[in-house]
C-alpha cells in the first residue's frame, strides 16, 4: 500500500502525445503495407494461370471485335488494335521462361507491361473513343476489377490511374475534334468508376493481409514442428545417457527394458507428429480412396497408435460402441481425422481448471437409418459461437501458440470427400461435441 502511495499519479495523455502515438501507428501501417510488403507483378503466377490469361487475351479480342462490329455495333472499333492485344496474349504462351517460378525480373516487367496495356490502357482508350457509353463504362469497370484481382493492389492503383491519364492524353492528341463527353454523363461515369477503384483497393488490401497471415501461420507451423520434435529428442538424449550409465554399472534388465520401451514410445510419438504435419500439409490435394472401413476398428486402431503423454491422459478417453457401421473412405486419412480430434479434445481438457478424469473424452460409435456417427464429447474449456463459425477455416486456430489452423480444415475435407459431414456444438466452459456423420456402405 505504501509503495502505491509513493507512485506519482497517472496523468491523462496530452493531445500532443496522442497525436504522436496516432502518427506512429499510421507510419507503421504505411511501412507494413507499402514498404516492407512484396509488390507482386502477378498474383499466383502458376503455369496454368498464365496460360489461361494468355489464351483469354488471344481469343477474346477477335471475338469481341466481331460482336461489337457485326452483332451489336459500337461507335468505335479497331481491328489492328484488337490484333495487337491478341499478340500480347500470344506472347504469354510463346515467350521462353515466361512461366518460370519464381519469375525473373524480366518476366515480372513483361507481366506488368502486358497487363497494363491490355487492361487499364486499352479499356480506357476504348472508353474515350466510344464517348463513355454504357457498354464501355461497364467494360472499363470490369477491367479495373480484373486488374486489381490479377496483380498487387499497389501496382493496380498506380497502373490504372496512369493508364487512364495516358489514354486521355493520346485521345486528345489523335482525335482533337471529337465531341467531348457530356458533363452529366462524365460525372455519372466517374462515380461508377470510383466505386470500382474503391472496391478494388479494399479487396486488394484484405487479400494482401490474408496472404501475409497465411504466410505467418505457415512459418509458425514450421516452428511448431521444430518445438514438437525438440522435446522428444531431448528426452531421447537423456535416455541414451541413462542406458550408457546402466552399461557401466551392473546391468539391470528391467531398467533397460523400461528405458527401451520409453525410447520406442518417443520415436513413435515423433513419427506420429511428422505424419500428422505432412498429412495436414496436403490439405488441398487429398488422394481419393474407396476402402471399406469399419468405424469401431478405426477408432480403436487410431487410439492404439496415438502417442498419449501419460497413462492418465490415456485413461481419460473412453470408447462406447452402440452399434458398429462401415463406410467407404481412406482408412489412413480417417485415422488422422480421429487423431486430430483427439488431440484437440485433450488440449482443451489440459486447458481446463480441473484435473483430467476417466471419461472426460467420450467417443461414441453408432448408426441410425442409413447414416453412421462418430461423436467426440469432451469436458474441456469449450468455445463461443464466433469460434465455432470459423474453426473449420484453413489457418484459423484457437491456439496461436501451438496450433497451425490446418487440423480441423483437414478433417472437414476428408469427411466431405467420403460424402459425410462434421459439425461442432459447444459453449464456453461447457466442453465441446464434434459429430462426424457418414453414409453407410
Find the CATH topology of the largest domain.
Heat Shock Protein 90
Radius of gyration: 31 Å
Mean pLDDT equals 80
Corresponding CATH architecture of the largest domain: 2-Layer Sandwich
Task: Kindly estimate the percentage of residues that lie in beta strands according to DSSP.
Answer: 5-15%
What's the count of strands? Answer: 7
Q: Look at the structure and name the CATH superfamily of the largest domain.
A: Histidine kinase-like ATPase, C-terminal domain
InterPro entries: BphY/WalK/GraS-like, HATPase_C_sf, HATPase_dom, His_kinase_dom, HisK_dim/P_dom, HisK_dim/P_sf, Sig_transdc_His_kin-like_C
EC number: 2.7.13.3
Keywords: ATP-binding, Kinase, Membrane, Nucleotide-binding, Phosphoprotein, Transferase, Transmembrane, Transmembrane helix, Two-component regulatory system
Transmembrane segments: 50-68, 80-99, 106-128, 134-150, 155-175, 187-205
Question: What is the structure about, briefly put?
Answer:
The protein is of the alpha+beta class.
Description:
The chain has 441 residues and is of the alpha+beta class. The chain folds into 3 domains: 47-181; 218-281; 291-439, Histidine kinase-like ATPase, C-terminal domain (Heat Shock Protein 90, 2-Layer Sandwich). Helices cover 63% and strands 10% of the residues. The protein contains 14 helices and 7 strands. The protein has helices at residues 2-6, 15-36, 47-71, 79-94, 105-129, 134-150, 153-174, 183-248, 253-281, 295-305, 311-315, 331-351, 385-388, 407-417, and strands at residues 291-294, 317-321, 326-329, 361-368, 371-378, 421-426, 432-439. The chain has a 5-stranded mixed beta sheet with strand order 2-4-5-7-6. The protein has a two-stranded antiparallel ribbon with strand order 1-3. Strand 4 and strand 5 form a beta hairpin. The radius of gyration is 31 Å and the shape is elongated. The N and C termini lie far apart (71 Å). Residues 1-11 have low confidence and may be disordered.
Amino acid at each position: 500500500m505504501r509503495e502505491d502511495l509513493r507512485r506519482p499519479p497517472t496523468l491523462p495523455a496530452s493531445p500532443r502525445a496522442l497525436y504522436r502515438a496516432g502518427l506512429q501507428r499510421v507510419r507503421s501501417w504505411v511501412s507494413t503495407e507499402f514498404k516492407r510488403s512484396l509488390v507482386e507483378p502477378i498474383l499466383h503466377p502458376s503455369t496454368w494461370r498464365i496460360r489461361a490469361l494468355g489464351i483469354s487475351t488471344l481469343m477474346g479480342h477477335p471475338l469481341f471485335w466481331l460482336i461489337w462490329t457485326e452483332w451489336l455495333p459500337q461507335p468505335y472499333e479497331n481491328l489492328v488494335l484488337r490484333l495487337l492485344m491478341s499478340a500480347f496474349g500470344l506472347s504469354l504462351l510463346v515467350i521462353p521462361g515466361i512461366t518460370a517460378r519464381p519469375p525473373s525480373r524480366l518476366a515480372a516487367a513483361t507481366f506488368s507491361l502486358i497487363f497494363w496495356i491490355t487492361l487499364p490502357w486499352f479499356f480506357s482508350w476504348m472508353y474515350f473513343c466510344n464517348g463513355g457509353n454504357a457498354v464501355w463504362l461497364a467494360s472499363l469497370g470490369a477491367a479495373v476489377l480484373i486488374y486489381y484481382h490479377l496483380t498487387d493492389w499497389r501496382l493496380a492503383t498506380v497502373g490504372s490511374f496512369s493508364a487512364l491519364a495516358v489514354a486521355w492524353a493520346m485521345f486528345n492528341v489523335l482525335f482533337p475534334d471529337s465531341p467531348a463527353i457530356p458533363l452529366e454523363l462524365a460525372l455519372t461515369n466517374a462515380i461508377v468508376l470510383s466505386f470500382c477503384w474503391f472496391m478494388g483497393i479494399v479487396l486488394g488490401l484484405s487479400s494482401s493481409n490474408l496472404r501475409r497471415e497465411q504466410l505467418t501461420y505457415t512459418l509458425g507451423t514450421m516452428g511448431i514442428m521444430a518445438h514438437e520434435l525438440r522435446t522428444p529428442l531431448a528426452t531421447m538424449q537423456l535416455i541414451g545417457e541413462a542406458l550408457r550409465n546402466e552399461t557401466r554399472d551392473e546391468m539391470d534388465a528391467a531398467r533397460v527394458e523400461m528405458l527401451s520401451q520409453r525410447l520406442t514410445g518417443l520415436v513413435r510419438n515423433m513419427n506420429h507428429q511428422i505424419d500428422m504435419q505432412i498429412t495436414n500439409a496436403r490439405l488441398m490435394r487429398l488422394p481419393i480412396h474407396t476402402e471399406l472401413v469399419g468405424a469401431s476398428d478405426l477408432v480403436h486402431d487410431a487410439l492404439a497408435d496415438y502417442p498419449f503423454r501419460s497413462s492418465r491422459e490415456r485413461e481419460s478417453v473412453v470408447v462406447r460402441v452402440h452399434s458398429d457401421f462401415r463406410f467407404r473412405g481412406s482408412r489412413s486419412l480417417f485415422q488422422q481425422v480421429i487423431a486430430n480430434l483427439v488431440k484437440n479434445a485433450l488440449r482443451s481438457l489440459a486447458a481446463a481448471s480441473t484435473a483430467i478424469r476417466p471419461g472426460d473424452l467420450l467417443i461414441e460409435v453408432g448408426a441410425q437409418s442409413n447414416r453412421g456417427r462418430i461423436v467426440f464429447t469432451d469436458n474441456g474449456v469449450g468455445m463461443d459461437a464466433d469460434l465455432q463459425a470459423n474453426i473449420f477455416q484453413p489457418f484459423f486456430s484457437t491456439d496461436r501458440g501451438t496450433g497451425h489452423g490446418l487440423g480441423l480444415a483437414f478433417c472437414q475435407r476428408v469427411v466431405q470427400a467420403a460424402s459425410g459431414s462434421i459439425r461442432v456444438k459447444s459453449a464456453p466452459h461447457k466442453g465441446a461435441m464434434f459429430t462426424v456423420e457418414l453414409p453407410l456402405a
